[in-house]
Amino acid sequence: MTEPAAHPTLPQATVVPKKHRRISVVWIIPILAAVVAIGIAVQRILSEGPAITIVFKAAQGIEAGKTFIKYKDVNIGTVTAVQLTEDYSKVTVTAKITKSAAGLMVDDAQFWVVEPRITLSGVSGLGTLLSGNYIGFAAGKSGKTQRDYTGLDVPPSLTGQPGRKFTLKAARLGSLGIGAPVYYHSLEAGQVIAYQLAPDGKAVDVDIFVNAPYDKYVNSETRFWNASGVDVTLGASGVQVRTESLVALVAGGLAFDAPPFATVAQPATAKTVFTLFADQPSALKQPDAVAQHYVLYFNESLRGLSVGAPVTLLGLPGGEVTEVGLDLDAATQKLRGRVEIVSYPERLVGRLTGQQLVTAEAIAHSIQQRRAFFQRLVEQKGMRAQLQSGNLLTGQLYVAFDFFPDAKPARIDWKQDKPVLPVALSTLPNLEAKVGSILTKLDKLQYAEIGADLRKALASFDKTMQETNTMLAHIDTDVTPELKSAIAEFRRATASADKAIKHTDATLLGPDAPGQQELRDAMQEFTRAARSLRILTDYLERHPEALIRGKAEEENP
Amino acid sequence: MSAGDLSAAAAGLVSCETCSLLTQPVHPNHPGHCPRCGAELESRRPRSIQTTWALVIAAAICYIPANLLPVMNTTTLGSTEPDTIIGGVVFLYTSGSWPLALIVLIASVMVPIGKLIALAYLLVTVQRGVKGGERERTRLYRMVEIIGRWSMLDVFVDTFTVALVQLSPLMSVEPGMGVLFFAAVVVLTMIAVETFDPRLIWDAAARQQDPRQETKP
Questions:
Q1: Sequence-ordered list of residues with C-beta below 8 angstroms from that of B132, at least 6 positions apart, any chain
Q2: Is B114 an interface residue toward A (CB < 8 Å)?
Q3: What letter does residue B199 receive in the DSSP assignment?
Q4: How many angstroms away from the CA of A82 is the closest CA of chain B?
Q5: Do A37 and B50 touch (CB under 8 A)?
Q6: CB pair distance less than 8 Å for B54 and A30
Q7: Closest chain A CA to residue B53
């Protein structure tokens, strides 16, 4: 490198201090933070829906910040404040409605408090298990915006959803509540929307809403029944447990279906009134158009026979017990059991097939023919009613009709409103009856006589003892001397035997006696035999299979 | 001028921030590199006050949503409840555990705001050239520096809770927007503490000693 030549003519470069930008880039950070924060705030403000107030009679479980307003199960708002009105008579609930639902807040929108209920619909819904009260909402049709509402006391019917509303007449409400599901083939098809006491006060009117498309399966022949909880029936037919679903088990529910005998009918119109049956079997039972009542008189215990117990013919159910009572014969002052039964011939007729069915149906539907047929059964074939034990454990009884060709002849008086049918004494008496009869027999025993007999026996025994005594005395005098001489002779005999044995000892057991030698050999032989036997058993213990397969070849080590 | 008050800058020297070697700068404005460790030499951290201000303001802005927005959304049996920091403090206090409430209040509310106020105070005093109390202010700076990392504890707790409490459908915890802002406050103040040059505190004292700088407009 050459030295830089000095050029005095050239101007000297100057050092200009680097100018600092006055605003540092770092200010982007606070600006960014401000923009984000303001953005969020603006978004919050913009998404803020209107605040509305709803006046309720009471704030049942409504809590500020925790209670939601739900429309079609979607949260559309949250309660922000719960206050008493100025005159302290009602409650004003202030709620923030989400922006998206602001358009729903119109003049004729409706609000009501939905009571807590347990909804277990599916595993994903477990979260709402204890969701508490919420405010229900029904959209209005008006276009006028409204911000102040008065809440409804009872929920309005579901008007927005496709489906139909029906009314069920129930004897008891059971565990049904508003929102309780209505099932069709175990599918949730609707819900209970309201219930109230019927105007006559004798039943409960349950309003249900069946969603489309299930509503088209509700026709005039549809049966509704209560599917609440577990239905445990303990009858003559044993224990039956039945439940529609877990939800119904907890929250109660209804179910409907068409009975198997139903003919296809037109879907029922909305607001049709149906009867709510207590359970599925009674709901789906064939309507018994033909019902004949009979009376049976039993001269035996009716314990275990309850109303509703089946009446069977050859074991097939064909009716039921309608009343269990007592009858007093005025003439003989005799009490006996009176059992009223109802028979549904159609149920038995339904078991027939083909041409028989047609014939039997004709018989069942004509009173004259039916009576004639029945009379023939009773008077010629010996059909008799009999109490039978349905369940040995519970002692439930039922009435069984069977044929007893040897039965005493009987007649049926058709003139009576409820004709009396002849009965046969039960052939299978229940345990209780048996025990009872044993007890009766015991009771009948004549204890006094037994006592006298016993005393007599004791007296004779005494006599016998005395006789024995005299006999013993006789023995003492007559027999003893002879016995003495006999003993002396016996002693002599044993002494000679002793001698003989000693002699034998010398020959047999002497140290050089041949018998001794042989015996020793025999003993040794025996010991050897015993040892080999032990070896054999040892071997068998270790190789039991040797019994079958023989001894295995010893392997040479 | 006593030896104790003499600053390197006043003597026209630069101390390396990495290895503390006292060097003669190449040029007052461009001190060059440390001959021993090679770190870039700076008499004072560049634009320290401006940068620190920017970060402090950013942290202050973030502090507002950090406290207003929920840090956690707890879903218990179907009902979701947003929890803010202050809400947590109030909950702890009302449920009887006031010592815990106090800890959360101090660690999560007072410490961040205290840091912001402390930094702002240091900046203002440095800008104004306030004399006196340099030792105390330096101690304050050190405290802010040490305490800073502990505020992150909240964010860790939040993160762990969110990760662990996922017992859906019984209970689940989702993070809220607030925790992001809270973390931003903590991180920004920590950086602000780093950008602030504590030597500036002593420059005012040095100016007081140096009549040349005193007379400077």
A1: none
A2: no
A3: H
A4: 18
A5: no
A6: yes
A7: A27
Strand extents, DSSP E, A228-269: 231-235, 238-242, 254-257
- Which residue, among B191, B44, B144, has the nearest Cα to A29 in the 3D structure? B191
B78 touches chain A (CB under 8 A): yes
Higher pLDDT, B141 or A354: B141
Give the model's confidence band at B213: pLDDT under 50 very low, under 70 low, under 90 confident, else very high.
very low
The 10 Å Cβ neighbour count of residue B45 is 17
Q: Which residues of A touch B48 (CB under 8 A)?
A: none
Whether the ipTM is more than 0.85: the answer is no
Q: Is the peptide bond before A213 cis (omega within 30 degrees of 0)?
A: yes
Beta carbons of A27 and B54 less than 8 Å apart: yes
DSSP annotation of A167 reads E
CA-nearest of B99, B98, B94, B83 to B157 is B83
The length of chain A is 557
Most B CBs within 10 Å: which of A20, A29, A133, as the mutation test of the B interface? A29
3-state SS, residue A51: strand
Contact at 8 Å (CB) between A102 and A50? yes
Write the CA distances from A205 to A150, A168, A200, A271, integer angstroms.
26, 6, 11, 12
Cβ-contact A198, A234 below 8 angstroms:
no
Number of H helices, E strands in chain A: 10, 23
Provide the 10 A C-beta neighbour count for residue B110.
Answer: 13
Instruction: Look up tokens 């037109």; give the residue.
Output: A266
In this structure, what token pair is assigned to residue A51?
């605040």
In chain B, the DSSP E strands lie at: 14-15, 22-23, 72-76, 79-83, 166-167, 171-175
Nearest to B65 among A37, A65, A66 (CB): A37
Buried-state track A5-23, b at ≥16 Cβ within 10 A, e below 16: eeeeeeeeeeeeeeeeeee
CA distance to partner chain A, nearest, from residue B73 (Å) = 13
Gap from B18 CA to chain A (nearest CA, Å):
23
From first to last of its 557 residues, what are the pLDDT tens digits of chain A?
455 556 767 777 777 766 655 677 788 888 888 898 899 889 888 878 888 999 988 877 788 877 888 888 788 888 888 989 889 888 999 998 888 888 888 888 888 887 655 544 444 344 444 566 788 888 888 888 888 888 887 666 555 667 888 888 888 877 777 777 888 887 888 888 878 888 888 888 888 888 888 888 888 888 888 876 666 666 666 777 766 666 666 667 788 888 777 666 677 777 788 888 877 777 777 666 677 888 888 888 888 888 888 888 888 888 888 888 888 878 888 888 888 888 887 777 777 777 887 787 777 777 788 888 888 888 888 888 888 877 666 778 888 888 888 777 777 887 878 888 888 877 655 566 677 778 888 877 777 788 888 899 999 999 999 998 888 888 778 777 788 888 888 899 888 888 888 877 666 666 666 667 788 888 999 999 999 989 888 888 888 887 777 776 655 54
Give the A:B interface size as CB pairs under 8 Å: 64
Strands (DSSP E) along A157-243, which ranges? 163-170, 181-184, 187-197, 204-211, 223-226, 231-235, 238-242
**Dist CA A311 CA B134 (whole Å):** 108
**What is the rounded average pLDDT of the residues B29-38?**
82
Nearest 5 degrees, angle CA B15-CA B21-CA B26? 60
Distance CA B120, CA B137 (A): 12
CATH 1.20.140 positions along chain B are 47-215
- What would be the CATH architecture of the domain defined by B47-215? Up-down Bundle (1.20)
Nearest CB partner across the interface for B47, out of A18, A24, A65? A24
| Token digits of residue B14 | 């630069």
Q: Which residues of chain B are within 8 Å of residue A26 when distances are taken between CB atoms?
A: 47, 50-51, 54-55, 195
